[in-house]
């Protein structure tokens, strides 16, 4: 006699002893390769910051340029040929942000203080940009998953492969699952159903999923075999 899951319907037919083991049920979802075309690569450096933040950075650069021009335009320590103008101040503020360090040569004490503050601002912006860009490249270059949790699968009405022994239990726990259930006999059939398009997600026991993966998916890089294992909302509900 093999092991049986203690479900609500089975407890009405027989008295079970204390369970010898408990299975954790998981949600299996498929994924698609991220689109890495030319436009994706072109826009990636600019999606690191939101458009309001980009506009804020431009406004800060413009304010710094105007302030530097106002403070230094009357400085007698500048040579005549290097008298600061507003266009030059705007160019220097832009170069300071894009090169990572202020290119302005401050003369007056007020200008020196502004340059020090602007250099710290540049340091914070570039540090944040570098960190966010690295995170964006890693996430965007990965995979796009069908759903992120079981509630999303229910709301989207995705067809779900469920093992026949626990189908009734899950349908009682999640009434919305009733009309989208695809009953299967075992875990390999559930995974095959996802590959064949019969269901978009599957609910299987974690232990059975690991056994089936070793049995039919020895190479995790073959098409259709890559999966993402998520905690199901009804973890152990049918244990």
From TrEMBL:
- Record's keyword terms, sorted: Glycoprotein, Ion channel, Ion transport, Ligand-gated ion channel, Membrane, Receptor, Transmembrane, Transmembrane helix, Transport
Per the record, membrane topology reads:
Multi-pass membrane protein
Task: Give an example GO molecular function.
Answer: ligand-gated monoatomic ion channel activity
Which residue intervals define the domain Ionotropic glutamate receptor C-terminal in the entry? Answer: 50-143
One GO cellular component term: membrane
Record-annotated membrane-spanning stretches: 46-71, 113-131
Q: Which InterPro entries match?
A: Ionotropic_Glu_rcpt (IPR015683), Iontro_rcpt_C (IPR001320)
Q: What is this protein called?
A: Ionotropic glutamate receptor C-terminal domain-containing protein
The species this protein was found in: Pyramimonas obovata
Q: Name one Pfam family in it.
A: Lig_chan
What domain of life does the native source organism fall in?
Eukaryota
Q: State where the protein is found.
A: Membrane
């Amino acid at each position: 006699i093999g092991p049986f899951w203690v479900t609500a319907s089975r407890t009405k037919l027989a008295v079970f002893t204390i369970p010898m083991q408990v299975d954790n049920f998981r949600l299996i979802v498929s994924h698609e390769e991220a689109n890495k075309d030319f436009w994706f690569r072109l826009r990636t450096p600019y999606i690191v910051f939101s458009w309001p933040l980009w506009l804020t950075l431009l406004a800060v650069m413009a304010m710094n340029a105007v302030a530097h021009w106002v403070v230094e335009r009357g400085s007698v320590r500048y040579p005549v040929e290097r008298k600061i103008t507003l266009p030059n101040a705007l160019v220097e503020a832009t170069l300071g942000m894009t090169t990572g360090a202020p290119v302005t040569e401050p003369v007056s004490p007020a200008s020196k203080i502004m340059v020090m503050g602007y250099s710290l601002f540049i340091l914070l912006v570039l540090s944040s940009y570098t960190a966010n860009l690295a995170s964006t490249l890693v996430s965007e270059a990965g995979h796009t998953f069908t759903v992120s949790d079981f509630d999303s699968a229910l709301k989207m009405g995705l067809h779900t492969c469920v093992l026949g022994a626990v189908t009734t239990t899950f349908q009682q726990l999640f009434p919305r699952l009733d009309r989208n259930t695809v009953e299967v006999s075992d875990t390999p059939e559930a995974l095959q159903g996802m590959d064949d398009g019969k269901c978009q997600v599957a609910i299987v026991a974690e232990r059975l999923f690991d056994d089936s993966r070793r049995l039919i998916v020895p190479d995790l890089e073959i098409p259709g075999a890559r999966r993402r294992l998520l905690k199901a909302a009804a973890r152990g509900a049918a244990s």
